[in-house]
Write a structure and sequence with these properties.
Elements lengths: L10 H41 L8 H6 L4 H6 L7 H8 L3 H8 L9 H18 L6 H5 L5 H18 L1 H23 L3 E2 L15 E11 L5 E11 L10 E8 L2 H6 L1 H15 L5 E7 L3 H9 L3 E4 L5 H4 L3
Parallel strand pairs: 1-2, 4-5, 5-6
Antiparallel strand pairs: 2-3, 3-4
């Protein structure tokens, strides 16, 4: 039974309600989320300053010992630079930068190559360092607590500014999954873990799991794992015993949703090609999803439940 995909007469009203729901959450929650992230970022910057002698010692040896310092250093530049810009300016390998941004050293690079690349990296970082923000470097003087605190807050704000969208998006995703979990538990479902080596059709009735990797066919002989936000085995088994898949989606503007609308369609297509046409996937929507987006997803055989009307999960079979 379709929940919303076959009711276009309600779409416009639901879009308006969903936008209002998202905006209310954003105004009331996003500032705190950002402030909390900035507090953590300030601690990260202060640690980086401590490891580098207040940015006086940006050297291959420092980065070798503390590779996770590099994202902070990028924000200590004038102007702050993105990861790809640092790769281009330094002429270093992208694989090196990817590792450093993850807080580790590359495992397949020789010591000589690593030193060579880190030297190139440090030449750029030292050359672009924001000396107005770190006056003790130009003056070759000691750092006082006021200067250090001010510099740490500014760099932390830059760090959070560069990550503002992911910070808010991740907070929204956590909230959506928490809403689904609360609803399922209130309706006598149990959160569990389904062993990866067991078929999904053997998932225990009345259970659910988050962030499961589901194996799908990708070509004639290859298989790949695709992540699914929520997998629920209804208390009353669906056709073929295959659980329901739920993808939590939120958006703060209409443009990005229409750019990415093919992603969900591709995912459900792979699932159905692997497990059969009866596979059911729901989108759990909150925010700026307009009628063109909804029409595209409906045409691709997808249905959805709006977060502002979460009880529609029961209509979907849960």
């Amino acid at each position: 039974m379709l929940v919303n995909a076959d009711k276009p007469n309600r779409w416009k009203e639901d879009v308006q309600a969903s936008v209002a729901f998202f905006n209310h959450w954003f105004v009331n929650s996003a500032p705190k989320v950002y402030r909390d992230s900035r507090v953590l970022a300030t601690i990260e910057v202060k640690n980086a300053m401590q490891h580098s002698n207040d940015f006086r010692e940006i050297s291959p040896a420092t980065i070798r010992e503390y590779p996770g310092i590099v994202p902070v250093l990028r924000m200590a530049m004038a102007p702050p630079i993105a990861r790809d810009r640092l790769i281009g300016l330094s002429g270093t390998k992208a694989s090196l930068q990817k590792s450093l941004e993850s807080g580790i050293l590359p495992s397949r690079m020789s010591d000589a190559a690593l030193d060579s690349n880190l030297t190139l990296l440090c030449d750029v970082l030292n050359g672009l360092l924001d000396l107005d923000l770190f006056p003790w470097i130009a003056k070759n003087s000691t750092t006082n607590d006021y200067e250090r605190e001010l510099a740490a807050v500014v760099v932390a704000d830059r760090l959070c500014g560069a990550q503002a969208d992911p910070i808010v998006r991740n907070a929204q995703e956590r909230r959506q999954l928490a809403a689904i979990e609360s609803w399922l538990i209130a309706h006598d479902y149990t959160k569990g873990v389904h062993a990866a080596n067991r078929p999904l059709t053997e998932m225990e009735s009345g259970t659910f799991a988050f962030r499961m990797n589901v194996s799908v066919a990708n070509g004639q002989s290859r298989r790949v794992n695709i992540p699914v936000d929520v997998v629920v085995q209804p208390k009353k088994s669906m056709s073929g015993g295959f659980p329901m898949m739920i993808e939590a989606k939120s958006a703060g503007d209409f443009t990005n949703t229409n750019k990415r609308r093919k992603e969900e369609a591709q995912k459900v297509r792979q699932l159905r090609e692997t497990y059969g046409a009866s596979v059911s996937m729901l989108l759990f929507l909150c925010g700026y999803f307009d009628t063109p987006y909804l029409g595209y997803e409906a045409a691709e055989g997808l249905d959805w439940v709006w977060e502002h009307r979460i009880d529609d999960l029961a209509i979907a079979g849960l």
